[in-house]
Amino acid sequence: MPRTEEQNKTIRVERKQQIMGAAMRLFSEKNPAEVSIATIAKEAGVSKGLMYSYFKSKDELELSIMNSTIDEIMEIFLVSNKVIEGPDDFTNRINRLFDHVINNVATWKIYTQLILQSKMKEFLMSPKIQDVMGWYQEQLFNYLQKQGFEDPAKEIIIVGALIDGISIQYVSAPEFIDINIVRNHILDVYAKKY
Amino acid sequence: MPRTEEQNKTIRVERKQQIMGAAMRLFSEKNPAEVSIATIAKEAGVSKGLMYSYFKSKDELELSIMNSTIDEIMEIFLVSNKVIEGPDDFTNRINRLFDHVINNVATWKIYTQLILQSKMKEFLMSPKIQDVMGWYQEQLFNYLQKQGFEDPAKEIIIVGALIDGISIQYVSAPEFIDINIVRNHILDVYAKKY
Amino acid sequence: MPRTEEQNKTIRVERKQQIMGAAMRLFSEKNPAEVSIATIAKEAGVSKGLMYSYFKSKDELELSIMNSTIDEIMEIFLVSNKVIEGPDDFTNRINRLFDHVINNVATWKIYTQLILQSKMKEFLMSPKIQDVMGWYQEQLFNYLQKQGFEDPAKEIIIVGALIDGISIQYVSAPEFIDINIVRNHILDVYAKKY
Amino acid sequence: MPRTEEQNKTIRVERKQQIMGAAMRLFSEKNPAEVSIATIAKEAGVSKGLMYSYFKSKDELELSIMNSTIDEIMEIFLVSNKVIEGPDDFTNRINRLFDHVINNVATWKIYTQLILQSKMKEFLMSPKIQDVMGWYQEQLFNYLQKQGFEDPAKEIIIVGALIDGISIQYVSAPEFIDINIVRNHILDVYAKKY
DNA sequence: CATGAATGAGCATTCATTCAT
DNA sequence: CATGAATGAATGCTCATTCAT
Q: Which residues lie below 8 Å from residue D178, measured CB to CB, with a gap of 6+?
C-alpha cells in the first residue's frame, strides 16, 4: 500500500532536516569545500543519490545552510519584530543572544566562516538582510537614545564589535574564553536603569 | 657558465615571495581549499611545476602563509619587546595596529579565517604564540593598572573583543565600516592622561 | 527500485575480474610502472574513476594481481596437498605445471617479473609462501629418495633451475623456445620406473 | 688556460662511465621507470643538465645500459671468439660465467629484467646478437658432440635453462641460493674427461 | 663544459553528478 | 522514493626536458 501524499511530505521534510543537520555538523568542523557529498550522505544515513532529490547541487545545499543559519541568527535579534521596550527587554535580548552562541557553537562557527567569504557579501547586502539589520539598528538607536547616550550610532558600532569579537573568540576556543565577561560588561554599560 | 650560488639564492628568494604574494591575494578572497595550485601559479606568473620547487606541497604553502601572517601580526604587537611606557606609547601601538589592519586587509582576512580553522588551534596554542600573547597581556595588565583600572584583566578581554570584532567587520566590507570609531573609542577610554 | 544487494555483489565481482584481467594482460607486456591507470581502465572498458571503487590505489591493484598470480601458481604445485605417490603422479604434476606455463604465458610473465622486484622479496619470504614451498620440497625430497637418488636436495635445486630457466625463456619468446625438450628431459631423468 | 681537446675527451669518457655506473646501480635495485633522472644525476654527482650532454634522453641512457650490459655478458661467452678446445676450456668458461654472476649481481639483475621486456625482443633478435648466439651454439654443439653426447642440441637447451634458472634465482636472493651446486652439476655432466 | 631554474605534459586520485534498477 | 555503480572533469603532483647564465 503506497504512502499517502501527506506521509511523503512529512518524510521529505524530515529527510531534508536530517541532511542539513548532518551537513551543519560537518561544516562546523571543516570547510564545506573539504567535506564531500559522500561524507554528508553517510553522516545523514542516506544514499548519495537521495541527496540530489532534496538539493539540486552541493552548492544549493551550502546555500540552504547559509540561509537557515542566517535566519536562525536573525530570529534571535528580531524577537518577532517588537520594539525594545526598556533595559529589561534589552537585557533579555542580549541574554538570548549570548545563550544562543553558547548553545549553538556549530551554527555560529558557520556564521563567522560565512561572513568572511566573498560570495557572502552580496548575500549580506541583499535587501532582506539589510532591511532586518536597518530595522534592528533603528530599534537600538531609539533605545540607546532613551537611555541617555549622547552618540547612539557610535555605541551601536561598539556593541556590535564587542559581540562579534567575543563570539568569534568563543567559537574558536570555547574552553578558553569566558564569554560572560563581555556579556556582563554590555549589560552594565547599556542596561543600567536610571 | 652557470649562475653563481648568490644569483640563484636571489632568484629563489624573489620567486618565493612572488608565489606567496599571489597565494595571499587569492587566499584572502577565497578559502585555500577552493584555490587550485594552477590558479596560484597563474596569478604568480609561474608554471605549476615551479611551485613544487619552492613548496613541497600545497599544504606546505598554506602553512608558510599561515606562519608569515602570524609573524607579521605578532610583530605589530611586540614593538621590539619593550614595555608599554604610558598613554602615548599605548596610543602609538593602537594606531600602529589599526593602520596595519587598514593597509593590510588581505593579511587580516587570512588571519581571521585562520583562527576559525580547527587545525590552527594547536598552532595558536603553541609555546611560541602563547609566550608572545602572555607577555603582551602582562604588559597591558601593568599599563591598565597604572592607568587606574580596577579590573585590568576584564578590560583586556573587552579591548581584545573590540579589536577582533571591528577588524573582522572591516575586512569583510571595508567600504561600509568606519573602523576609526572603535579606534577613537579605545583611545578615549584607555589612553586618557591624568 | 534500487538493485538488491545480491545484484550489486555480482556486478562488483564481475567488474573486479574484468579490471584484473585487463591489468594482467597489460602487466605481462609492460612493467606496471609503465602502465597508466587510464590505459588499464580503457583496456577493461571502464572509466578511470571506477577503478578506484574497486582498488584503493594503483599499488593495491598491483598487489592484488601479485597475490592472485602467486596463488594461482601455488595451486599448481599443491594438488590438494597430497603426497607425491610415485613416478606417474610426479609425471602428472610436471605435465600440469608445463601445460600451465604454455597456456598462461601472461601469468608466468608476471610471476617472473615479480620475483625480480625487491619489494617481492619480503612477500616471498612470508610464512605462507615459505610453508607451501617447504612442504613441497619435502614431498619432492621423499619422492626422489624413494626413486634412488643419492643427493635428493641437489636434484631439487637442479629441477628448480631447469623449470625456472626454461619458463623464463619460454615466456620471453614462446614461438622460439621448445619447452617440451626440458619437460621430457625431466620426466626421463626423474620419472623412470624401476 | 683552456683544457686541451685530449683532456676534454678523457673527461667525457669518465663522466659517461660515472653516469652509467650510477644508473646501473640504481636500475639494479629499482625499475628504470621508477628511477628519475634527478636521482641518477645526484647518484652520479653531476647536474641534471649535464646528463643531456651525454645522453640525448632517458631512453637513450637506458638503451646504452642495455647495450653495455649485453656486451659485457656476451664477452663472457665469446672469449675472443675462440673455439671451445676441450673439457678444460669448457670448465674455464663455465667458471668465468658463474664467477661473473656472483661478482656482478647488479649487471645480471638488469639483464634478467631486460629479457622480460617486450621491447627487448627485437633487440635480442637483432642480427648482431643472433650472430653471436648462433656462433656460440655452434661451438657448444661441436664440443658436446666431441664429448660423446647423442643429442647435443638438446643438451644445449638444458644447459641454457640450468644457467638461466639458477642465475635468476641467485640474483633474486643471493643469500639463499647456492649457485655452485648447479655449477658443479654442469661441470660433472658436461666436462668429464674420458 | 656545467648548473639548476623553469616548463608543461602526463599521471594518480578525488568527487560532484547521473542514472539504471 | 531510494540505491550505489558509473562517469569524467578537475586537482595535486612528478618528472623528462630545455635553456639562460
A: C157
Tell if A15 CB is < 7 Å from nucleic strand F: yes
Q: Do B164 and A160 touch (CB under 8 A)?
A: no
Q: In chain D, what residues touch C171 (CB-CB under 8 Å)?
A: 116
Q: What is the CA radius of gyration of chain C?
A: 20
Strand E: list positions under 7 Å from protein Cβ. Answer: 1-21
Look at D185 and C154 and tell me if their CB atoms are within 8 Å: yes
In terms of domains, do B170 and B124 share one? yes
Note whether A90 and A150 are same-domain residues.
yes
Residues of A in contact with B129 (CB under 8 A): none
Say how far apart CA B105 and CA B171 lie, in whole Å. 6
Q: Please state the φ and ψ torsions of residue B36, each to the nearest 5 degrees.
A: -85, 155
Please tell me the distance in Å from A47's CA to the nearest CA on chain B: 25
Shared domain for C39 and C77, answered yes or no, is: no
Provide the residue-wise pLDDT of chain A in tens; the chain has 194 residues: 556 777 778 888 889 999 999 999 999 888 899 999 999 999 999 999 999 999 999 999 999 998 898 888 888 877 666 788 899 999 999 999 999 999 999 899 888 887 777 667 777 788 878 888 888 889 999 999 999 999 999 999 999 999 999 999 999 889 989 999 999 999 999 998 65
Chain D partners (3+ C-beta pairs within 8 A): C
- CB distance C161–D162 less than 8 Å? yes
Does C174 lie in the same domain as C89? yes
Element (H, E) at A128: helix A127-146
**How many CB atoms are located within 10 Å of the residue B171 CB?**
25
Query: What does the alpha-carbon distance between residue C50 and residue C41 come to, in Å, rounded to a whole number?
Result: 8
The Cα–Cα gap between A167 and B161 comes to: 8
d(C-alpha B106, C-alpha B25), whole Å: 6
User: Which chain A residue lies closest to B33 (C-alpha atoms)?
Assistant: A33
Domain presence at residue B147? yes
Question: Can you give the residue range of the structural domain that contains B164?
Answer: 65-190
Say if residue B33 is in the same domain as residue B114: no
CB–CB of D161 and C166 under 8 A? yes
Domain annotation covers residue B60: no
Q: Which residues of D touch C161 (CB under 8 A)?
A: 161-162, 165-166, 169, 182
Between residue 37 and residue 76 of chain A, the positions with Cβ below 7 Å from nucleic chain F are: 46-50, 53
User: Which SS3 state, helix, strand or coil, does residue B116 take?
Assistant: coil
Please report whether residue A138 resides in a domain. Answer: yes
Domain tally, chain D? 2
Which amino acid does the sequence have at D177? I
C70 and C30 in a single domain? The answer is no
Pairwise CB contact (< 8 Å): A113 & B116: yes
Domain with D99 in it: what CATH number? 1.10.357
Instruction: Compare all CA atoms of chain D with the CA of C166 and give the residue at the minimum distance.
Output: D161
The string of DSSP letters for C83-129 reads PP-SHHHHHHHHHHHHHHHHH-HHHHHHHHHHTTSHHHHHHHTSHHH
Check: CB of residue C179 under 8 Å from CB of residue C170.
yes
Closest nucleotide to B1: CA versus each C1' = F21
Q: Among partner residues C109, C163, C173, which is closest to D165 by beta-carbon distance?
A: C163
- pTM for the structure as a whole: 0.88
The verdict on A129 and A156 lying in the same domain is yes
Task: Report if residue A96 sits inside a domain.
Answer: yes
Identify whether residues C11 and C87 lie together within a single domain: no
